[in-house]
Amino acid sequence: MALFDLPLSELGQYRPQLPAPADFDEFWRRTLAGAREHSPLIDVRPVATALTLVETFDVTFAGFDGQPIRAWYSRPAGFANAALPAVVEYLGYGRGRGLPVDRLLWPCAGYVHLLMDSRGQGSQYGTGGHTPDPVGSDPATPGVLTRGIRNPETAYLRRIVTDAARAVDAVAELPGVDLDRIAVVGNSQGGGLAIAAAALNPRARALLATVPFLCHIRRSMDITDAAPYAEIVQYLSVHRDAAADVTRSLGYFDGVHFARRVGVPAQFAAGLRDTVCPPSGVFAAFNQLGALAADDPARATEMVVYPYNGHEHGDTVQAQRQIDWLAGVFDVVRAAAA
Description:
This protein has helices at residues 8-11, 24-35, 105-108, 156-173, 189-200, 217-223, 229-238, 243-250, 255-260, 279-286, 316-337; strands spanning 41-47, 54-62, 68-76, 84-90, 112-116, 177-187, 206-210, 266-271, 302-306. It is an alpha/beta fold. The longest helix is centred in the last third of the chain and has 22 residues, at 316-337.
């Protein structure tokens, strides 16, 4: 893929004028207040695996409207009495939580790890998911992105963003978690959910968002024809009268608006040839981190750029950078608490 977006020199300064809906904060306050009427944890069960160095639990927690969301909770074996730093991880679009053996990076790095299943997803690639979306919707494009999209109250994105914020509440209730060291992490859709969770839940103390989806949605729709953004375009090509409603609704879920409200250290990554999550969307969110937050995260933010990569970004090179960066951030947090 050739370079197709803004040059890097412009991306570093790219701060589009993108007003949030006037009731953005109230919408999310009300949404989360309703979800928090339910206790975070519904069920926690140990899972027998052949992994002798990792303990795994099948967790069900209360997401949007108290609806059950599945997750894997894994931790290094032999640390039963230790409070370890935690990583809450969100998945890419179309993937489910899969099998307990699928994601071992963070437990092997010494973290407790909650991997949230994505409601209604898990049948596009990977090894499946286990969380249905019990909420129906008006006619939608195949995929989940356009379900209920004409109204933020009914939008699928409202439900999964709420699930993401509640996953942080859930991990804080699990045993052996250092409450001062909880990070939210994700690639692609997972990166967009991580940004939202960091903005909405003050228990999150660090953010890692690699090639995040749902950032500067309107521009991304206009400059790429790749899925999942193409789902919205396809929907509007049929529902020709819906553009104003859809544009307004998507404003409640744009990562740029969430990023402005993030006040914790953050590492982002972008592939400059990424047609799935265009780099201008990633930079639009990164460049406005903390603009409306009480704390300024600028002292601990980092953008990693892969000039010759697309949506695959740095692959395991980026995973190593995430481990190194988060270890440094949480060492500072631990020293401050000592």
